[in-house]
Amino acid sequence: MAKALMIQGTSSGAGKTTLVTALCRIFANSGYRVAPFKSQNMSSYSYRVEKFEISRAQAIQAIAARAEIDARMNPILLKPLGNYKSEVILKGKFYKKMHAKDYYEKFALSVGLKAAKESLDWLCRNYDLIIIEGAGSPAEFNLEKCDIANMRIAEYSHAPVILVSDIDKGGSFASIIGTIELLNKRYRKFIRGFVINKFRGDMEILRPSFLKLKQKTGKPVFGTIPLINLNIPEEDSLHSNPKRVRWHKKYLKSLDKEIENLSHLVKDNLNMKAIGDLIK
To answer: What is the pLDDT of residues 208-263, one digit of tens each?
Structure first.
């Protein structure tokens, strides 16, 4: 049975997608058969072929993992239509258009969670390591009851969680501690450490804060990733400016090179031994 590692964030745009992409390539380069997974993704940008459609982000992560792109890597894709309605893509196929209220009350914990678990189970049978991406923040307690993208999945897959925070926005340490404090106590044990993302200051000024963070949470910082310009398409969150892509051979070659460069940068700035120990 495959091991699993989960990346969650203190907010949307914290860098979950980018970190999962990098880790997929790092572990693939280390000889693992790796697959990405995100149970539920909301995005207007998708990867579509004749047989199925999934979020573009998970397709790119599959490329990073050198894995065949599969609908089970993103069993639920929500394509926003406006006025709190979305087009629901279930296991790669159009399911129906749903209002957010109906989605949470009639779909998420029944059809949605079942599809997520079935998809994750299949990936675990066919790969060595699953790198799971959460959605938004796990500490949105107004949504916790119906959240099928964060701690429910961590608990189901027995996945250690790395929490990533965007320090460029400010308030990074407060958001980390606040996230843990707001989590249901049964879920806090899954968070094993933190990654500080989008840093562009003096590490000597930042580093003493890691000790204070560990004193308050009992958990380490696995590393700090510098703020960089990426040519890898972002998701269409509030803080991104996504671009459209064409999946031709020339683009895929340039994308692969960009992913490889990203993986080296991330590997150089994270304690990969400590992260590797989480999946042993």
So the answer is: 999 999 999 999 999 999 998 887 876 654 444 556 677 888 888 999 999 999 99
Distance CA(280)–CA(3), nearest Å, equals 8
What is the Cα–Cα distance from 213 to 185, expressed in whole angstroms?
18
Q: What is the mean pLDDT of residues 15-35?
A: 97
Task: Give residue 145's domain range.
Answer: 3-39+117-278
Distance CA 38, CA 61 (A): 10
- CA end-to-end span of the chain, whole Å? 12
Which residues 6+ apart lie within 8 Å of 201 measured at CB?
Answer: none
pLDDT in tens, 88-99: 999 999 999 999
89 found inside a domain? no
How does pLDDT run across 97-110, given as a tens digit for each residue?
A: 999 999 999 999 99
Q: Is the dihedral of CA 146, 149, 153, 155 positive or negative?
A: negative
Alpha helix positions (H), the chain: 16-29, 56-65, 100-102, 113-126, 151-157, 172-182, 185-188, 203-206, 208-217, 249-269, 272-278
Q: What is the CATH number of the domain that holds 211?
A: 3.40.50.300
Per the structure block, which two tokens stand in for 21? 């992409």
Q: Is 47 inside a domain boundary? A: no
Tell which residue, 125, 46, 50, has the closest CA to residue 80: 46
> Has residue 67 been placed in a domain?
no
Using one digit for the tens of pLDDT, what is the confidence trace for 51-72?
999 999 999 999 999 999 999 9
Chain centre to alpha carbon of residue 89: 19
Look at the chain and report how many structural domains it folds into. 1
For residue 66, tell me if it sits in a domain: no
